[in-house]
Amino acid sequence: MHVWRIPYPSCRKGESPDFTGDYPPLVTIEPDTEPRHLMKNRLRALLDEARDGFSLPQAFYTDHDLFEADIQAIFGGEWLFACNAAEISRPGDYLTLEVGRESIVVLRGPDGEIRAFHNTCRHRGARICTDASGSASRLVCPYHQWVYGLDGRLLHARQMPAGFDTSRYGLAPVAVQFVCGLVYVSMAPDPPALEGFRAAVTPYIAPHQPDRTKVAFTSTIVEKANWKLVIENNRECYHCAGSHPELLVSLVEFALPEDAEEEEGLAALMQDAARRWEALRLPHRPAEGGDEFRCIRLPFNRGAVSFTTDGKPACKKLLGDFTDPDLGSVRMFRAPNNWHHFLSDHILHFRVTPLCADRTAVRTTWLVHEDAVEGVDYDLERLTKVWLATNNQDRALAENNHRGVRSSAYRPGPYAPSEFMIRNFVNWYRARMGAFAGRPTAALARAG
Ligand code: FES
Ligand SMILES: [Fe+2]
To answer: Which residue puts its alpha carbon closest to atom 1 of ligand 1?
Structure first.
């Protein structure tokens, strides 16, 4: 039986409740230990069922309890890509991330600092920022108008009794870190280290100067698919030939330099590119990211330099100090929720946030040089055409995948060799979920 526990004392009218303390606890309703224990047992059993090199058992894609476990274990514990700092460039600019039942607001304060908070009011818990993005000098809860500063402090709570201590009701903070202007947030009380990732990817992406960009366009689509199917679809190009005519004008269909060696034309393309990039001191060999992240520079098809329908540049003003438009793209992925392309003339960020077991938001941001002028240096339709089309094609693929996975006849299927990046992602996911479920590691199991 589910027993629900509300871990707060009652208080009489007119009294200030005296139970705020540090975080946690916030106003949370937690399932009692028994259902959580049962859920972890079930999670362990399902993880035992999962086989290396095969897609996951059905419940991982469709089950609502498993989705809740994903939110706690993965999205509650990891660093999540939120945005490029250029997306909130002025004091008061904010944007929100919806992650299952969680909501985070990321904002820039009057001091220029970027901070993040749980987007839930300390009065009775209402969402404070209800828009996906905006700009405000204060955060005002729409319910009873409690007013918060951009540093999260409660500034005003109307009609509260004399002596009410506003200093005890600030917004719950969320950790923030930066990687070359990319903003990562973590809801974990003690977030994992991000330094290894930052050190590994900075040499690849810093030359593109992501912190000296401006937003040209943003799109958010909600896909009727589990978030892992959305990520899995991104981690392979096995499907590209059948689905992405616009993308394949420029994108090469190999994921590792070694893959190019099998075809003479591709091998020469890779060798030429490697020679030029080494002369420019641009790293291109894959970074050592294990299953957690990937970063590599790969060329475009011969003659193509950007994601456009003719392969020609999308923006005349190149990023950073670049003078050569033919830099291919740095493809960067980091589990659990982001992938990116850094080109010579623009940057693309893709942010995945799960809404529920079968709904996932995919937010794409196109950034160009901070001084580029629309209509002069770039045409918005030309800049966005390929990835708007590709995103829509990927949405249809992920939704169709999700529909099929729900079948009673679904069984985990084997990955093709070219799907090795899905395998990396699924291995990462299984390891994280195993740790959450208290599952013995392989070494412990052997010892036992
Ligand atoms: S819930 Fe925010 S002011 Fe009441
Ligand atoms: Fe795709």
So the answer is: 124
